[in-house]
Amino acid sequence: MSKRDAVLKYARWISARIVLGEMTPYDGAKAIWHASLDLEDDPVPELDPFIYAASESEDRPEDRTFFDEEIKKHALQLVA
């Protein structure tokens, strides 16, 4: 399995945890973000919403509810 495929599989697993309520959206998105850093030159566009939401959630804590909902929406799409 390529590193890219492994990260995508991990992101799907994390997304399932988010959808099931076993992991907070922010923590899940942050885990996906950190895993994606290993891909350097082979990004996975499907992970961009998680990276953006985790980053912005850190910078804009007053909007955390909005970002949590967006993360949940994208997690559901990734596992569907």
Which sequence of SSEs, written as H and E, runs from N to C? HHHH
Rounded mean pLDDT is 93
Number of domains: 1
Instruction: Please give the share of residues in helix.
Output: over 70%
Estimated radius of gyration = 12 Å
Main sheet attributes: strand count, strand direction, barrel closure: none
Q: Cα distance, first to last residue?
A: 21 Å
Outline the structure in words.
This protein is mostly helical and 80 residues long. The protein is built from four helices and no strands. The protein has helices at residues 3-19, 25-36, 48-59, 64-79. It starts with a helix and ends with a helix.
Secondary structure layout plus pairing:
Blueprint (H helix, E strand, L loop, with lengths): L2 H17 L5 H12 L11 H12 L4 H16 L1
Helix pairs in contact: 1-2, 1-4, 2-3, 2-4, 3-4
Concise structural overview:
The protein is mostly helical. It has helices at residues 3-19, 25-36, 48-59, 64-79. The longest helix is centred in the first third of the chain and has 17 residues, at 3-19.
Overview features:
80 residues, mainly alpha, 4 helices, 0% strand
